[in-house]
Amino acid sequence: MATKEDFRESRELRTKRVERLNTASGRRVIEPDADVLGEFGVSQIIPDDLLSTAGLRLDLTAEQKSRLAREELASMMRIGIAFEAVLMAGFAYRLALAPDVTDPRFTYALHEIGEETRHSRLFARVVAQLEPEQRNPIDGRLSRRIRGRMMPLILRRPATLDALVLGGEEVPDLLQKLVAEHPDADDYLRRISLYHRQEEARHLAYARTTVAEHYRSTGWTDRFAVRWIVPGAIAFMFDMMVHPLVYPTIGLPALKTWFAARRSPNRVELRRQACRSVLKALLDSGVFRAGHVPYAWRRHCAVNRQGDPLG
What we know:
Mean pLDDT: 91
Radius of gyration: 20 Å
Low-confidence stretches: 1-7
Shape: globular
Order of helices and strands: HHHHHHHHHHH
Strand content: under 5%
Helix content: over 70%
Oligomer: single chain
Largest sheet: none
Number of strands: 0
């Protein structure tokens, strides 16, 4: 078992890591309204094999695939804005209660809030450029009521928030990596993906650094949520990146197509990859131990107790 001296030394090392992240964030300020400008240059901005319908053997016209690509990207951007708003609220909540404003973690939280606001401004501009026809599934009275109830529960549980941050960064990072590396993806979309991934890499590094600290010092409800609720939330987050109301814009049934897409081998494997990335971060940081991976994580990541992929 680690001693108090071991934990103190480990915290000092983590503090130095956060200081390096602060330095990097200060040196690499990118203003998307000046540095990530452009217009979509091809008709189908997301290639066939990266669409959520890949592998479903749907007989779609070129016009339908072009519209679907724009609708899927708009869906991902809208979900991204909503998630980053939760993240910024979480950081602001921590700042309001912070006992030491000289802690490098306090400074980094300010950096991350600034970067997330820039991301959200870019996403909002891109949504306007896409001119989506879909209805927004989170723009309803019931959705707002649920979010209003859930938000305080998340903000008061720092380890849960950290784990959700890891999920909320790993999911789009995986999807954007595929876009950035695909030769047939739209060039403007590729530049957006590269910009976002560059800054999110630091956010992932910070969440990996702090999640163990928060998990050690938090209450049982926070630890319960990390072990049993977060993996399902990450899987749902992945599935909602392209929500059901996207499909009626090209004449497909909403729920039937969405359920078929989320069960397709390609989407199942991508969802598991995103979940495994978060699990690896929790294992590497010491939140979980190999051989003792909780059942909910094993189920959603398709791994064994050691954290290794099944099959």
